């Protein structure tokens, strides 16, 4: 088999992102080690290689030259697992996960995946408490960020999986109704991902998801102006990147918070006209995006609050 | 993952073999127009120093998009990669002369190094011809030569016999678009039908939802022009359907608008249309809100005017 110069791959990827060796190596290996790896004087361990590439936003499933056939089979199952989670099919997800466990190795990224996956399944199947759920995620994140909880992550070069884990953690806090803590975490993540080396699409998707959650939670702690501002920021990103998937939620968040402000007498009653306009957009965009649940939800809201019948 | 596999081993050959076999594609089919079966066998067996652009195209034909740099093995690969990036950048920035200079340099080192390089060179020449105001016919000829370098019997209605990469597919769509603007409707249509048949037949590409809606827009417009309204509607709905699960709005506004127009035309043809028809109105509103959000104001204003005049609809502000 031909031999890949791993050092070259790391160096070329790093240079294409204009990052220094110091920035790339922090908490993964020493700068000297990275330098030796890049010049081919030393071979990186599997963990080091994976972590460096992950930090630079490379997508592991696409590393075709690095993976073996059994890796592909595991990665395909991991994808299937994520699909079941998205569909709320937790029993099926658990079955796939048991299958994955038999074949999974013990690299850091494998362990992180496993802890996160087991945690989600166990919680959704009501085998663990919210507390344990939270602890599980925190254990998973500590695998790649040992100083988690001690340092601020605002300047940390987060990779996509870490950002996803932190999103899971914040949602767990929100489920415990600790919205302030949930908000703190996501604010840090948003700050960090602006300067991370994540692939642009992944970063932007993460950003709008975060803004949508933040807006919802700020609304729940009655900081409505802030909630509106954040949702509008998310809407602007959707406009720039032509995202439709989360747009109805963001539009609805603006409306809901404005309605609270109208009820409180902070905003004039004729703001309702604007709200109705936003709801119309949200309704039709949800319809085009084939999100029937969201569409129905907005329709009901329009009927109950605005006496609009969309069937006429 | 399996623990500590030997890291430096090039596993790309077994990856290609694995994906080829799970999709039941013969070696001969996969490498048509790219390399010989003997070469593909050697690649799968793990031969070293294979051209990275050849590897990339083979993977793309299997519906996979590899990470940048990971396939690069030799200095030739790296220089080719840099040249290609520079040429693309200069074309995007409209620097025609700078792009030509780089292209000549690239042609000298890579022009005889296989069909994938030849394809890139011809494609770049076609776009440059367009940029400097050359004739559409010349652009079409160059693009046809480009696609024919990796799909040799492109002109003989055999697209379905191939497994095509997204690069090859986009090239074909570009040809169709130019043929339509050069009024070569008949030829454009026959290629388009092959593309649709191909897309319905093969489901390999991970991001086929990026291709299908594009094709659906072109096809439903063409069918509408020739009053084949049912066919137009079918294509349009397929395009919308394939977009499910995609987070982007890119093609949805246009597809929704076309669908509304077809629905209206169909009802009118059956004498069933009345001013303010509810289903049509709803379909137009879907299109309106997406296009307005995407700042496609020319079409959204057109819809608004149409709805005010023919649907007595004043509900948009």
UniProtKB/TrEMBL annotation, chain A:
Protein's UniProt name: Helix-turn-helix transcriptional regulator
SMART domains in the cross-refs: HTH_XRE (SM00530)
Occurrences of domain HTH cro/C1-type (ranges): 10-48
Coiled coil: none
PANTHER family attached to this UniProt entry: TRANSCRIPTIONAL ACTIVATOR, TRANSCRIPTIONAL REGULATOR-RELATED
Signal peptide stretch: none
GO molecular function annotations of the record: DNA binding
InterPro entries noted in UniProt: Cro/C1-type_HTH, HTH-type_regulator_Rgg, Lambda_DNA-bd_dom_sf, TPR-like_helical_dom_sf
Transmembrane segments: none
Provenance organism: Mobilitalea sibirica
Record Pfam families: HTH_3
Automatic annotation (TrEMBL), chain B:
Full protein name: Helix-turn-helix transcriptional regulator
Parts forming coiled coils: none
Domain HTH cro/C1-type, first and last residues per copy: 16-69
Single GO term (MF): DNA binding
Top-rank lineage group of the source organism: Bacteria
Gene source species: Mobilitalea sibirica
